[in-house]
Design brief:
Length: 371
Amino acid sequence: MGTDSLTLAAAQVEPVYHDKEATLDKACEWIERAGDEDVDIVAFPETFFPGYPYWRRAVSIPRWTELMVDLQKNSLSVDDDALDVLGDAIDDANVHVVLGTNELDERPGSETLYNSMFFFDRSGTLVRRHRKLMPTHGERTIWGRGDPSSLSVHETDVGTVGGLICYENHMTLSKAALCAMGEEIHVAAWPGFWTQDGHPGDKTRAESTADTETCDIYPAVREYAFETQSFVISSSMYMGDLAPEKFQEGELGYDLAGGGSMLVNPAGIVKAGPTLDEETLLVAEFDRDERRATKAYFDAMGHYARWDAVTLEVNDTALNPIHQRDHAGQNGVHAHGQSDGQLSPAKAEEIAAKHDVSIEAVEAVAEALEE
């Protein structure tokens, strides 16, 4: 981390539902506010552009199709002109921005949507994106699964930044991966704040901070902070209008967007929030000594790590529809004369001469590798 103090913020802002242009204007307005308060990093909620698809559970299949098409038209892509507008606003504000968005795939021929986070540096450059690895429950009818390659972190002038979306913040191995990559500042994006009765399938919108007793977000972000010794920005969706334009009454009946954003230090102490039922720029100042003090007791990447007992393998592969393969020629023979899965005598002799070993030794190694 490049500085001993940093100011973090959660932009708990209501999107202009299913309206990309109006939501863009609103995003720029709140980015400017963050700049005015000398914020270092500001994070918007999950799918702020152009709102979380709360309609997915309450509409018929024909209406679902109409709304999916409308969502595609109002979502962002990495080559969208809207990113230039956002970039200019970010550059003027001199703030790092993490933006939750419905993302339209840029692959030629694809119209698939992803639940994504876009990470911008202070100059307004899109540094990277993270796509939610596994959409939850009925979300799988809306979004594709993200690439393993987007499970990563990046360096900023105030520290190493990572982020996860909603229930990804409960995924033990994904959290461990970001920790192992040196994450210092974590963004947790959510579609709201809720109370639940017995199980995650029985949720209702949180009405008061007393609902923290049953909302999994509250313990999740505090534990994330403590177990990784990270500063956590937990940014949650707020929507005040349950019947926005384009929607009939009841189509957004599944509504959890009560806000609930929080800012947490590496000891799991809530410095601001959870804030409910209002638009707000939640801001708190932190000191790096808060992280050092926690690590003095429990350093997940230092004296408290036991990589000899437990290790983690991370796949950073990007998923693409086209792959180039080294195909064998006619009759399974490659251009250098080697048959598939076998070492030719000529090649064995060449390797033996190059490394001054016996042909028998080369053949023995080749046989061992084939087993």
